[in-house]
Amino acid sequence: MTLNILIAGAGAVGQVYAWHLAQAGHKVHFFVKSAYVKDLEAGLTLYRLGYGLIFGHTKSKVQHLSDFGVLSDPHTVSTMKWDQVWLTFSSDALRSDLANELLAAVGTATVVCLQPDLQDGNYVQTRVAPHQVVQGMIPFLSYQTPFPGQPGPQGIAYFLPPGMPTIVGIQPGNGSMERVHDVVGALRSGDLSAKAVQDFGRSTATAPALLQPLIAALELNDWNLNSLPTSANLNLGLAAAKEAIAVAATHTGASTTPLRILLQPLVWRMLLPIMRRFFPLDLETYLQYHFSKTAIQTRLMLENYATLAEEQGLSAVALTQLRQAMPSLPQHKPHRAEVR
User: Fold this and answer.
1) What is the 3-state secondary structure (H, E, C) of the chain?
2) Distance between CA 183 and CA 175 in Å, rounded?
3) pLDDT digits (tens, 9 = 90+) for 183-210
4) Per-residue pLDDT tens digits for 202-232
5) Angle at CA of residue 79, ends 176 and 37, nearest 5°
6) Are strands 155-159 and 4-8 parallel, antiparallel or unpaired?
7) First to last CA, the chain
8) What is the pTM of this model?
């Protein structure tokens, strides 16, 4: 069955999902702010990267996408019938005026929320009927190429780690597994691995709780991966991650056992060299480039973990210390321009 799918956001994540969904024959539209409409008119070029050194290099595949629509007005969205609407922008942009206008215009469509914060799904459920909301966890790395100051082709590069599906699920009692299976089916029809789960939070919540404090620690370390394993920044990041994981587990009922080994500095001293050989890209440059762009989201998530910890009666000492140590950003107020 051909689906009518709206991809909200035409950045590195949105383009990857759009390309694969379009290959399955689904009709894809992008929703972007008006300033980006012309950028999309010439079509899109993506580069699917091959495996890293551990698995042996394979050539990148060049992929072109041109058969898609582009919308920038929520009113126009409201006049069309959508099967699925994919939200591919950051957690802070999710709370922007334009995102709220978009959610008010999607009708009865399944809304696929890809944002990583513990409370993002709940937020979307205040804007559309809870049974419409499906949540997903992005498993791939994607970025605009070339990196700043480096040579390379123009477009979006991405890497699909083997054995890493897009996990798709709902919050128990507040969603429809039929809609989950429809989303999983759409992904698989576009040659993307996907896995359906009944309790999305229990299945996924601890991974972002580990990642975001470590990204904050890397930012404090001037994005230097080589010195991170022996730095005080890593120790602070791991202490904050331990607190965030406890918050996520209390909030969702997830198990903390699988991640305990990753809270040891020695593990990262051994793991980081392997990771840098596994990915077919400059991992340090990618992390700085990507997470500098989502710096507001990182800070928002740390603050939310600390707030939830206080509500749950859990420790947030390291989370608070980590957040306070991070460089300040210009005062941020969500506005229409954030949704790309």
Assistant:
1) CCCEEEEECCCHHHHHHHHHHHHCCCEEEEECCHHHHHHHHCCEEEEECCCCCCCCCCCCEEEEECCCEEECCHHHHHCCCCCEEEECCCHHHHCCHHHHHHHCCCCCCEEEECCCCCCHHHHHHCCCCHHHEEEEECCCEEEEECCCCCCCCCEEEEECCCCCCEEEECCCCCCCHHHHHHHHHHHHHCCCCEEEECCHHHHHCHHHHHHHHHHHHHHHCCCCCCCHHHCHHHHHHHHHHHHHHHHHHHHHCCCCHHHHHHHCHHHHHHHHHHHHHHCCCCHHHHHHHHHHHCHHHHHHHHHHHHHHHHHHCCCCHHHHHHHHHCCCCCCCCCCHHHCC
2) 13
3) 999 999 999 999 999 999 999 999 999 9
4) 999 999 999 999 999 999 999 999 999 999 9
5) 100
6) unpaired
7) 28
8) 0.94
Which amino acid does the sequence have at 328? S
Q: CB under 8 Å to 191, separation ≥6 — which residues?
A: 20, 23, 24
- Cis peptide preceding 146, ω within 30 of 0: yes
Residue identified by tokens 């793991």 is 271
| CA–CA gap between residue 329 and residue 33 (Å, rounded) | 23
Rg (C-alpha) for the chain, rounded Å, is 20
Question: Among all chains, which residue has been given the structure tokens 């058969």?
Answer: 67
A 10 A CB-CB count for 325 gives 13
